[in-house]
Amino acid sequence: MSTKETQGKLWSVAPQYWSTYFEPFFLPIYKHVIKQVEPGENSFLLDAGCGSGLFSHMAISNGADVIGVDAAPGLLEVARERNPGNNFMEEDLESLPFASDSFTIVTGFNSFQYAGNFTNALAEAKRVLREGGKLVIGIWDKPEKSDATNILKAIGSLLPPPPAGTPGPFALSEEGKIEQILQSLSLKLVHKAAISCPFIYYKLTDGIKSFMGTGPAAAALNHVSEKQVQQTIAKALQPYHLTEELYHLENSFLLFIAEK
User: Fold this and answer.
1) Which of 36, 100, 113, 130 is the most buried (most CB within 10 A)?
2) Is-contact 191 255, C-beta < 8 A?
3) What pLDDT was estimated at residue 51?
4) For the chain, which residues make up each domain, given as ranges?
5) How many CB atoms lie within 10 A of CB 156?
6) 3-146+162-198+252-259, what's its fold?
């Protein structure tokens, strides 16, 4: 099974949990990107790894023409419901079905690291980008800079060791990794920022649902019971319990904007 098929299946297990309890916490980075690249009436934007279509919706609302692609049919179904009348397609980031020089903006939030080969995925993003167009990459910061890392590690403890080279959420977070790839592809880095995206849950059950919507949790369900996964998440969330049922996790994301 290809990386696309594997990841698409995992991220389709609980798409409503992802769209309701996890993705909204990315709004700070989404808003930052809207301000930086200003997708408007003359923009043709490809949301590469569009997930449940929240950023796509923001760009559409700003006036841009948007096409979204993702490997997960479950998330695409949510994206289509959220953005009726717009085109959302199940595609591979390493083999995009678009002509070269098609888009003025290509965005990839927490997506390129899940491609079988992320350098190839970024090369494809560059190919479909027009000269002078902007490539936006949003990824997790280094693991130690995000509290959510510890919840994901706890979920990972329920899984067998992954094969060497298996992509994960922090595959591109290594210092200088993105800059090195961009340079190798002759893409000019024009903006870099660390964006704080705190996760706040007003009920423990919301925190559990949030992480149950992730690919690692879906993978864990192939090895242990749903109850065990939920209990593992609940235990990992306890250090972030403040009062009553309020939970707060500090998280950092890295944003890169490059120009072709």
Assistant:
1) 113
2) yes
3) 96
4) 3-146+162-198+252-259
5) 17
6) Rossmann fold (3.40.50)
Sequence-separated (6 or more) residues with CB below 8 Å from residue 201: 21, 207, 210, 237, 245, 246, 247, 248
Q: Which two tokens stand for residue 203?
A: 């009920």
Residue recorded with tokens 């948007």: 66
Interatomic CA distance for residues 105 and 34, integer angstroms = 11
- Coil, helix or strand for 160? coil
Q: What pairing do the DSSP bridges indicate for beta strands 241-243 and 246-249?
A: antiparallel
Among 187, 21, 175, which Cα is nearest to 108's? 187
Q: Which residues, given as ranges, of the chain have pLDDT below 70?
A: 1, 164-167
pLDDT digit string, tens, across residues 125-135 = 999 999 999 99
> Which residues is 97 bridged to in the sheet?
none
